[in-house]
Amino acid sequence: MKKIIISAAALLVVVSLQFCSKTAVVSTDANPVVTVITAALQPNLPTTALVYVMNYPAHIQLSLNANDNTPADNVLTNDGATLGRVLFYDKQLSKNNTVACASCHKQNLSFDDNVALSVGFAGGLTSRNSMALLNTRFYKSGKMFWDERAASAEKQALQPIQNLVEMGITLAELETKVKALNYYPALFLKAFGSTAIDSVKIAKALSQFERSIVTYQAKYDRVKQGLESFTTAEAAGETLFNTAGPAPGGAPALSCQSCHSAPMFMNSAAPPFAFPDPLDAGINNQNRFKSGSLRNISTRTALFHNGRIANLQAMLTAGAPGSGTQPIPAHSVAPQDVQNILAFLATLTDNTIATEVKFSNPFQ
Ligand code: HEC
Ligand code: HEC
Prior knowledge:
With 364 residues, the chain is mainly α.
């Protein structure tokens, strides 16, 4: 009996292996890797690198000193982030040269996009909502993705490239493509002291660029530096955010800031708190999810790991009479508090991120 089960299992493995390799061949045929390089497309860069290595105002710098996830072997430099910027916007890093990191992480949308699920190189949809790449450097554990499955930015960076929906190439194909583009050797030389190109350096440069995307020029920051003051509504909203528990029914009684701490409005690790979703079990199948920085949140749409919450207002009023929705655990507030919390969260918007040349598409 045992033997039959074992051989049946072995047969199943053989059959499924065949199935996998067969589908892989079919999909390769349908979508061959495009190696033809559009040489006409050149990044437009200044002779001297733009400045990515910054001194931030004290309230930001203190938090950075305490939470910085930069590894010792990938310290941020202006030339490293410049190379990262070019890679981030380079569509030739995808199988058919149609998708770049920036396709789903758009500068004018806080390096997020505004749809629940994003479209990959062959028209397929991602299984989760894209994440805003703001202040990722301040997530102390360094773990990336909603389910924290990547241990660091460096480990994360090569995953979308290899993801069959997102960009769809192997690391060997990536290296071939990047080596074939005439603008890269000089950029690798400046960034890493050698024209040699490999996927480890590609991951490092992308991570440097991401770590340079820091918000510190919002009204919130000017208030913390004593340059401006909150309105009455904003100040009341800050107090609620820091002290108030969620509306009745929304256990547990934790304030917003206990899970989204100032000044970047993110914690150093995901909270031990379940957000049940029948379709997605999150971190270690515990229904837990990371929350990135809440900076610029007022301008963002399609929130949470599945993108199902339209915007802040919808989140705060979920479960209210007439809303037609279930309250989100810990996220609905009393009706009289909604306007003040919205006013406070609007002060976290740093519009400079959307227009800074150093974060923009160098291919235009
Ligand atoms: C087709 C859309 C798409 C493309 C292309 C894409 N991403 Fe993403 N990105 C996502 C989605 C969706 C998630 C969340 C996935 C998850 O958690 O499972 C994500 C998450 C991330 C995160 C995690 C952020 C955090 O706070 O944990 C980083 C960093 C990131 N992407 C960087 C990149 C880089 C670098 C590239 C290019 C090499 C890239 N992405 C290409 C859609 C995309
Ligand atoms: C117990 C911890 C906890 C508390 C308390 C909490 N949050 Fe969250 N919040 C999270 C987690 C975890 C996520 C991500 C969950 C997910 O996507 O499934 C999140 C997501 C969000 C998002 C969506 C972010 C995005 O990138 O899509 C917003 C906005 C938000 N919270 C604001 C608030 C506000 C305002 C409060 C107070 C009323 C609050 N949170 C209270 C843990 C918490």
